[in-house]
Amino acid sequence: MSDRILVDYAQMEESAGQMKKLAGEIQGEVEDLKSKLGGLDWEGADKEAYQAQQTEMDTSIIEIKELLEAIAGAVDQANSNYQATEGANAKAWG
To answer: Which range of residues forms the domain containing residue 36?
Structure first.
């Protein structure tokens, strides 16, 4: 059994990019939904219930977006670290 790690740098870069793109798309979908729902006339208890749900959803979406961006950043950093380590190892051997 081999004790090696094989890393596909291009795949890591693509995956991080897809996560960043998805984070942006989620935000766009939320803004589109808000625009559509914002045109409705909410009154009384319905207005309060809608606003409470909207606030909860906004918070959740922000958390998901930040999490995706953080994971993408970690994948980018890992990719850089793997490449730097491989370069240092190659230099050490010759």
So the answer is: 1-93
- pLDDT on residue 1: 60
Average pLDDT over residues 70-83: 97
How many Å apart are CA 94 and CA 89, to the nearest integer?
9
How many distinct structural domains can be found in the chain?
1
pLDDT digits (tens, 9 = 90+) for 12-64: 999 999 999 999 999 899 889 888 887 788 889 988 998 899 899 999 999 99
The domain that holds 39 is classified in CATH as: 1.10.287
CB of 74 closer than 8 Å to CB of 8: no
Query: Exposed/middle/buried for 48, CB within 10 Å: 0-12, 13-18, 19+?
Result: exposed
Terminal C-alpha separation, the chain: 26
* Nearest in space to 66 (alpha carbons), one of 22, 29, 12: 22
| Residue 43: strand, helix, or coil | coil
